[in-house]
Amino acid sequence: MMIEVIGIAAIAIFALLGALHIYWLLGGKVGINSAIPEIDGEAAFAPPMWATAAVPLGLFSCAWLVAALLEFLPSPVGSAILRPVAYLLAAVFALRAIGDFNLVGFTKRQRGSRFARLDTLLYSPLCLVLAVAVLAVAWAVDG
Question: pTM of whole model > 0.85?
């Protein structure tokens, strides 16, 4: 079924992104300079360790949510609770894609950095794709 393919793709992307963030948490350097917005060539912020640790937990939770909606993994709650959470998650990723009108998303004003280029070409479109995928899975499951 097509919705399962969409769900599996979303699960894989969430899991891969979670693994990438764990790699960075453990000190990995590849790609880290392209992951933080810049202002005038300087990182806009330095994420604290707790935030770096929270991101993969969130991403793995996103993967679990999609897997639970598709009944690939067990859940202590039913789709009546999972679906609204998935709709909220889809909204969060859609809002990330749209951006903050400054540093991230399609509406960003800071455009000259490596992060900004990757955000336009990869990060924001990926967030939009994930939003649509999660929305499609949530919509397709029985509620």
Answer: yes
